[in-house]
Amino acid sequence: MARGTEGAVDWEHAARRAAGVVKAGPPIDRPGLEALVGSLRSSAVDAPAYVADVTGLTEAAERAADGRVLVVDRARWSAAAADTFRAMAGEALPTPRVPGAARVAGEQLGWALGLLSTRILGQYDPYVGDGRLLLVAPNVLAVQRQLDADAADFHLWVCLHEQTHAVQFAAAPWLGDHLVGVLQDVLRSQLGGDDDGEHDGEHGLVPDGADSAEPPDDDQADAGGGGLAGLLSRLTGATRSGTPEVPGLLEAILPREQQEQLTAAIAVMSLLEGHADVVMDEVGPRAIPTVRSIREAFERRRDERTLSTLVMRRLLGMDAKLLQYRNGAAFVRGVREQVGHAGLNAVWSGPEALPTPAEIADPAAWVTRVHG
What we know:
Blueprint: H1 5-8, H2 11-21, H3 30-55, H4 58-65, E1 68-72, H5 74-89, H6 101-116, E2 122-125, E3 132-136, H7 137-147, H8 151-171, H9 175-191, H10 218-222, H11 228-236, H12 249-253, H13 256-287, H14 291-299, H15 307-316, H16 322-326, H17 328-344, H18 357-360, H19 363-371
Parallel strand pairs: 1-3
Antiparallel strand pairs: 2-3
Helix pairs in contact: 2-5, 2-6, 3-4, 3-8, 3-13, 4-8, 5-6, 6-11, 8-13, 9-13, 13-15, 13-17, 17-19
Protein name: Zinc-dependent metalloprotease
Pfam family, one: Zincin_2
Organism: Miniimonas arenae
């Protein structure tokens, strides 16, 4: 079998395993479910226009408004997330030499996705097809009830965040490939991209306090050779302790060049998430009367583990890097104070305009470099 993702992970088994371990979600009658789905779809359609009003990215917002919107349950999100991992990995995963290893890797990933499927509210996925917005109805409903939030306001609030990501990737169609390239380089480094198997040395709203699932035994996770199952465990945090298996993984195993690449990718994610938060907050008072109470309640529960940042966080093995992630909103506000949102939009022009890790903490330095 040729080296590649087809032989590395049994992706279909991962989706089946995830579907088998997830809980259905909070109870709701059929009229209530139809109203929930209709409200989420309506909010997803309305949100890009609000994003355009704040950002000035009108053409990108129009493309985002025409994008696919899928309102899904937890099992369907898990299957979609497996597709996302598959697309992100590309040809970076080597075919394991031990029989059954792909199924073990699929088992490990399935358990992790089953856990995550109870936590994700929404996710813009630019890596499959032309992009798609996934809204996980049972999770939105659960958090809406937990926060005692106005339904229409909360649905629009969630969609504003995710559709801001859709607008970002529409404004910067090169961005998905840029981020995937970094991930694939790291995977090749860790898992061995050469023929002898040797190697050089691992966008969403997520509430806290969700259901959990018990992952496979550590011995089972370590089976399969090549370290793929163990890597998936680190990537997804699917351990009994809920913490990364290898602290300081970045410094421990990555060459310096890839350390720098991955740190730069974290800075980009800081930009993406911070930008989405700023847009949400600016739109909020005009479109969402209860936005202040929603934001305050949600922040008390928030756990910064979206699907894309989760991958990088587990590769890094260092929670301290999330400080950089949290600085994204401060960067966006700092740039806007100097050059407005029109000036900030230069970040979508090409990879060279993305903020460096140092610039995330120093918006003025980015303005000077990009705008002179």
